[in-house]
Recover the amino acids of this structure.
């Protein structure tokens, strides 16, 4: 039996949504997919919610030829496509703040033009000091752009006001430890760490942020948040989509680099870290990195014993036939890139010793489902044996991140009727039901934080390097092709080798979207 009890908002304790200060947002790669599908509508939403300062401008920069007006018209189309009908007045007031400049990323004169355009726009829109450079371009351009920004005097590094000048770097940040460390070094020679915002959009999702509130604003969970009460933790990011138009990029990356190193380890560190001293950026990030350092080191052998990789073959999803990974556009016909990873990790510290963390992520699975499930230990003894209940299901707390953000707790309770009728009930909180509508797009939160100079949800240099270093032996083993790559049918829930990883410990993967 599963019952859903309504959740009500009793009292709003704190809600400090701070409006951004006057700011100029300069976006490289403004003609690209990310800007057109996500960024531009996220900035518009901030404007609509009155979180963007009136003294604001957006300068798009890329090689494609657009006039300001063409860029504005295109942006308005993208916003309508993402958000449906929007008030035309509001939209035209917003698009009047958009500008565009054409140029080549490796041409120094482009940056001189950007600098002089920014000076004029800052005067026109009454913006002083605060500048955000957003690098929404393929990763091979990151180094070129930061170098030329600095050469044009735009990084402002070394001057007292420079913390008002920020650079946002998209993922992926490197493709292994070496390249990430080198990229860090290059960027840090042009911008200081306080200016660098490495984006991980998963950390901008409401439920992911709520892990901190849930754990550290409630006294009842923290005492049981440890090896004495928790049996194991499962973190799942299941996607029903394939590689879509990103085949070329994905084939050189794979699930371990694309999802595991950043999003999955980011969620693991939030769910398992020690309480930070305060909600200040570096206090939270110190604890995240400390936790990552506690993860039991992996070896190339771990690729066999604690990791499973898979690649999707053709199958059926929602009644429609879909091609296998190797048949996707821009994917090598003999590719050995993994589209699925399952792993078992341990955190070697007093809180988590011997508690397994099972992580899995995959494309073209039967459903879209992102969740963190904390399974508590079973009761030590069932007093209901005589009623045929020698074992009782464990309590499970689920933080659902996609598709419907929320939190649920499963527990046993008496059903009306005979003395020992029992059922599993679910206490459920859904963001949409309590707060109405869907939570804001993660990019909205992250863009606002960046304009406000709050780095809490952005990945720090040491975090990136520790996580790449952790998975280096697995990348190596898979590169050497010393472990199997299993095939699974598109539309599957899982496959036998991935099941074996958890079932050999006497546990089971949760069903997708079980909440
Ligand atoms: N799209 C997403 O949903 C998504 C999600 C997460 C992270 N990201 C990251 O965000 C960044 C941008 O992603 P995107 O999907 O928007 O990329 P994109 O559409 O492939 O590229 C963005 C823009 O960069 C320029 N560009 C592309 N290839 C280039 C090349 N070889 N040389 C010079 N310029 C080039 C193009 O603009 P011009 O030709 O006009 O200069 C293009 O419009 C990437 O780092 C990506 O990994 C994207």
């Amino acid at each position: 039996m599963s019952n859903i009890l309504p959740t009500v908002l009793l009292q709003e304790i704190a809600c400090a949504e701070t409006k951004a200060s006057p700011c100029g947002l300069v976006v490289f790669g403004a003609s690209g997919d990310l800007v057109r599908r996500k960024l531009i509508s996220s900035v518009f939403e901030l404007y609509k919610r009155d979180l963007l300062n009136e003294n604001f401008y957006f300068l798009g920069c890329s090689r494609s030829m657009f006039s300001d007006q063409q860029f504005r018209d295109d942006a308005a189309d993208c916003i309508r496509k993402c958000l449906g009908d929007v008030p035309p007045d509001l939209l035209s007031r917003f698009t009047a703040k958009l500008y565009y400049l054409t140029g080549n990323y490796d041409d120094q004169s482009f940056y001189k033009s950007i600098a002089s355009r920014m000076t004029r726009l800052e005067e026109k829109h009454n913006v002083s000091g605060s500048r955000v450079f957003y690098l929404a371009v393929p990763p091979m351009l990151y180094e070129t752009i930061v170098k030329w920004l600095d050469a044009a005097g735009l990084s402002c590094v070394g001057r007292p006001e420079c913390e008002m000048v920020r650079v946002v770097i998209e993922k992926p940040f490197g493709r292994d430890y070496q390249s990430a460390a080198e990229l860090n070094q290059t960027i840090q020679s042009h911008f200081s760490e306080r200016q660098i915002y490495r984006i991980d959009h998963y950390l901008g999702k409401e439920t992911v942020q709520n892990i901190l509130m849930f754990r550290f604003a409630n006294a009842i969970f923290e005492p049981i948040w440890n090896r004495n009460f928790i049996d194991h933790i499962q973190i799942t990011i299941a996607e029903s989509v394939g590689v879509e138009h990103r085949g070329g990029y994905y084939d050189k990356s794979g699930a371990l680099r694309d999802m595991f190193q950043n999003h999955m380890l980011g969620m693991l560190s939030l769910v398992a870290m020690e309480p930070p001293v305060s909600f200040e950026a570096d206090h939270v990030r110190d604890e995240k990195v400390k936790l990552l350092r506690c993860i039991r080191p992996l070896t190339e052998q771990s690729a066999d014993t604690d990791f499973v990789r898979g690649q999707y073959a053709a199958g059926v999803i929602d009644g429609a036939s879909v091609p296998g990974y190797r048949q996707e556009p821009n994917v090598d016909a003999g590719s050995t890139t993994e589209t699925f990873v399952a792993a078992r990790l341990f955190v070697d510290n007093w809180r988590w010793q011997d508690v397994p963390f099972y992580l899995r992520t995959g494309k073209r699975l039967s459903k879209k489902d992102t969740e963190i499930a904390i399974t508590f230990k079973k009761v030590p003894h069932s007093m209901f044996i005589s009623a045929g209940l020698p074992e009782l299901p464990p309590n499970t707390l689920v933080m659902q991140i996609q598709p419907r953000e929320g939190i649920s707790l499963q527990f046993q309770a008496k059903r009306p009727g005979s003395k020992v009728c029992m059922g599993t009930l679910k206490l459920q909180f859904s963001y949409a039901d309590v707060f109405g509508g869907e939570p804001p797009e993660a990019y909205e939160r992250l863009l606002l934080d960046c304009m406000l100079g709050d780095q809490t949800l952005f990945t720090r240099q040491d975090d990136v390097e520790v996580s790449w270093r952790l998975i280096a032996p697995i990348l190596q083993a898979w590169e050497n092709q010393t472990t199997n790559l299993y095939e699974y049918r598109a539309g599957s829930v899982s496959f036998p080798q991935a099941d074996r990883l958890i079932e050999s410990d006497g546990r089971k993967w949760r069903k997708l979207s079980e909440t």
Remarks:
- The mean pLDDT is 93.
- The pocket of NAP is lined by residues 29, 31-34, 62-64, 105, 136-139, 141, 170-172 (CB under 6 Å).
